[in-house]
Amino acid sequence: MKFTIKPSSRMREIADQWDFRRLLNQVCCPTNVQAGTSASEFGAMFFFGGEVEALSAAISSFRSTCEIPPFIVSDLENGPGEMIHGSQRFPQMMGFGQADSAELVYAIGKSTALLAGACGFNWNFSPVADLAGHPDSPVVSGRSAGQRPEQVIKIAGAYMRGLQDNGMMATIKHFPGDGWDTYDQHLTTSVNPLSVEEWHEGPGRVFKELIEAGAMAVMPGHIALPAFDKPDERGLYPPATVSRPLLQDLLRGELDFQGLIISDAVNMGGLVGYMNYYDACAAALESGCDMLLFPHIDERFYVEMERCHAEGKLSRETLLDRASRVLSLKEQMGLMSGSLPERTQPDHAELARLAERVTKESLTLVRDREGLVPFPLRRGMRILHVVIMNKADHYKDLYARIHTELARYCDRVDQWVDPGPDKLFHAAISGTYDLILCSIGSRQDYGLNVARLHDEVARNMMGGWMRLGTPVIFVSHFHPFVHKEYEAPIDTLINTYGDVEFTARLLIDAIAGEFEIRRELLAHD
């Protein structure tokens, strides 16, 4: 059922008594890192990762400074473990898509809501509702549930329902759809190039159906959509964050979204490279956003926003409307009662079972031209594990676990990190090894502006060592589209869609034929 913020006359009366700065505070969501221990009352606060006890204490401390109960929010895109350190970690959302079970993903969403709720969170900036339209998108890729609208609707929708049915507001992002070009909206305004018809059949269908299913919040990205907008006097199309045609006409109007609109981070280059930082904050609110994410709040912020007010760029009526909506939503969610709901902690063993199940069911043999998998690993074999990954030192635990798991089957396991093509050439031509297992690719991170293997590390793919007779099995742990770039050199490739404590064991068992590995691509092709 579609979600609607119910206007509250009582909340409107409260907001009407506030001055400009207090109204502004209520529509801001800074970070705990930026705000520090001197945080004022804000409408919401984003908390970065930490241990459970430290996070709970920090959240409780901030909440105690607020007369109006705040939203407490984080990015729990694929389970709690990335932000709530020490809790269960899960594969990427695209792994959820490959596992292809709405029941399983709902259970993960439910467990995430219960565990995060027990820490004090009541809002989650997920699920990612973007389609993985371009294989080299530096922002979306494995964060998406897939390339096909029906798959994203099914999987992101299940995660959303698991969250919201258990007291956690979900956020579908990034409207009107990231993932269609190779630009990173953290750095510059990215562009969704789809026509009106293509958009309605793809991203538009996803957002429409998730809105119809009850999405409580939408996050617009710093993404232009020329098919539905007009260029400015410079010939530049505006990011959705500050576009009335996209937020008012398309999102509020055509898609009839009546929940909360929270901007993406206002310090991202896709917004503040397009226009002045403070003018952009004002324009986002005037264009339809209810809240600003990650504003840098200091005295200058207030002075500049008051300037925008004086210049007619941000009216008090707009601020009053946005603050009233935020307050009404808090009342609707039960936050204004002053008492926190009892949260039943999820069973940690059950969380582990969910993580192991989705890890196993998402492992995918993307390509196997020579029929290498299953490969008969056994004692007496000589195995070389090669790591060709940017920032390989970030993944030491991963390839240490792979080494350990290979040693369960084989007596000799060597491991090389970024060895270079010449060393690999000689290893492959000499007959020293019975199998070369190659972990390839890198994890995405914001502002890297590239999804592919890159820099000097990519030179490891030179030399033709994969064509010298020694069997080679490639494994991509994070970037799901390695096979697109290396169409000819890679004959056998397995995707794991992330790295959790079960990944290495299940990967090696699958290669050895201990269980049947998935061979169909559901989330992508």
From TrEMBL:
Keywords of this entry: Glycosidase, Hydrolase
PROSITE patterns, per database record: GLYCOSYL_HYDROL_F3 (PS00775)
Molecular-function GO terms, alphabetical: hydrolase activity
Enzyme Commission identifier(s): 3.2.1.52
InterPro entries: GH, Glyco_hydro_3_AS, Glyco_hydro_3_C_sf, Glyco_hydro_3_N, Glyco_hydro_3_N_sf, NagZ_Beta-hexosaminidase
Residue ranges constituting the Glycoside hydrolase family 3 N-terminal domain according to the UniProt record: 62-329
Catalytic reaction list: Hydrolysis of terminal non-reducing N-acetyl-D-hexosamine residues in N-acetyl-beta-D-hexosaminides
A Pfam family this chain is assigned to: Glyco_hydro_3
Membrane-spanning segments: none
Coiled-coil regions listed in the entry: none
Annotated family: Belongs to the glycosyl hydrolase 3 family.
Protein name: beta-N-acetylhexosaminidase
The species this protein was found in: Paenibacillus filicis
